[in-house]
Amino acid sequence: MVLSAVKGGGRDGGPAIFSPLIKKAEDLAFLEKDDGVANLEIIGRGGCGEVYKAELPGSNGKMIAIKKIIQPPKDAAELTEEDSRLLNKKMRQIQSEINTVGRIRHRNLLPLLAHVSRPDCHYLVYEFMKNGSLQDLLNDANEGRRELDWLTRHKIAVGVASGLEYLHMNHNDRIIHRDLKPANVLLDDNMEARIADFGLAKAMPDYKTHITTSNVAGTVGYIAPEYHQTIKFTDKCDIYSFGVVLGVLVMGKIPSDEFFQNTRELSLVKWMRNIMTSENPSQAIDPKLMGNGLEEQMLLVLKIACFCTMDDPKQRPNSKDVRCMLSQIKH
């Protein structure tokens, strides 16, 4: 079903629907028109294309987000080697997205509602997340446009850990996300974290200890060192990325922040480790969070972040242990 849908064979049968939120295929008929998204608000742009916001017809105001993935031309005469490579990459990412989030449901994962295939593009339909991404929220907080207090940051951390626990331990086969970062953590109306963007995700059967890929995928600053070195990934690679996200939540800085380029370590993880063993570990905490009496909690989370980003993956905790450690921090 997935292959035929991605290749366009499902067009005659209409959209592939994965959620009861969409009552009938006709609700997505507007996406099968040539100008289906022409008048919609663009809420994001990524490597694969634009993301639009729309009201789901017949849903009493339910908002959806529509990711448009444009296909390069399939005519062999027109297709350059670069276009061909891009086409294959995009098709793999659509397949991965459908294979994973099309069949999983958890409160901390962003559900794929439907897939609409057209001759020139694909539409992936999701619930609209009112509060945007964690990356957007951190940027706004740093620039004073929104507040992001410690209790909310901690709630987000627990939510992401819960989502990872489901992917790694409660789902058969295990699913490795491979690109966990603040931009891929969305926030719903209640600031509940939803892990999103499964374009690089891989299912790993229980009998396998790792999967080898042809090249390293992910985002610089969040990629586990052993994956860089061996091109083999496990669920502990996701744990490393999550450790970086924890560091970002407490420090208010992302790995590419200019701050780290001016340090001796040139790295968020190495700087965090050194500060945590210094005489004044509190200097790692986002200054906006200081003075609320919760600094000890934040230092505990930074210790968990250091634990998650150990160089040896065997020394990192699993996602259940991380979720338990974070949940035990009481305000």
From TrEMBL:
GO terms for molecular function: ATP binding; protein kinase activity. SMART domains: S_TKc. Its main location: membrane. GO terms for cellular component: membrane. It comes from the Eukaryota. The keyword Hydrolase does not apply. Residues 37-331 form the Protein kinase domain. This is Protein kinase domain-containing protein. It comes from Dovyalis caffra. The lineage of its organism: Eukaryota, Viridiplantae, Streptophyta, Embryophyta, Tracheophyta.
